[in-house]
From TrEMBL:
It comes from the Eukaryota. It comes from Salvelinus namaycush (Lake trout). InterPro entries: Tetraspanin/Peripherin, Tetraspanin_animals, Tetraspanin_EC2_sf. The gene is LOC120039459. It is found in: Membrane. This is Tetraspanin. The lineage of its organism: Eukaryota, Metazoa, Chordata, Craniata, Vertebrata. Keywords: Disulfide bond, Membrane, Transmembrane, Transmembrane helix. Disulfide bonds join 133-160, 134-151. The keyword rRNA processing does not apply. Coiled coil: none annotated.
Amino acid sequence: MAVNKCIKYLLFGFNLLLWMSGCIILGVSIYLKVNPVFGGLLPGLNLLIAVGTIVTVLGFLGCFGAIRESRVMLMLFFVGLLLIFVLLAVAGILGAVGVKKIEEWLAEKLLPLRNQSSLFQTFMQNLEERAKCCGLIHGPSDWGSTVPASCDCHDTTRECKLADGQRKVYLRPCIKLVTSVLAKGIFITMGIAFGIAGLMIFGMAFAMTLYCQIGETYATLS
């Protein structure tokens, strides 16, 4: 039985896209890792770097195995895809469960705000000015004894309080806005992860089909 050329080149194309995706994941995660604003705040960057590296290697194995019709490479590719599929499924489930813990994580990592980098403080102050809020979790007290001018209350329809004994600042914290943005990002990431997991099912099916066809071809020739 001859190897199906259609499956062979479909698998090659799939793995070429997989390899490119791995390179993109790896590049973006490394960029975020070295970025002074996000590097210390996103706990999953090391995992993303690992996933990007693994996906890149798997893409290479799949491309090489498909073109060279190597059963060893195809089996390694299949096992690797299966492991990544399981990890993505577990990560998606944990991500869905962990959405409710965003506020606790932010409080643990980001308070007090004065101890964060100057870039993050600038980010928070810009957010406060646009969203007309102050602080992250508890309000102005998140800044400590010195509340920045970005918290100054210029909208009389908002709830405000006195700070430093002479100026009014917004009382409402920015947590709802931040958590909604983070939750949206998590759900988008989960959707992408499950989409990739679905594609991996096709990749595993193609790989195993080609693996079996190569084995039957060798058996016929022998």
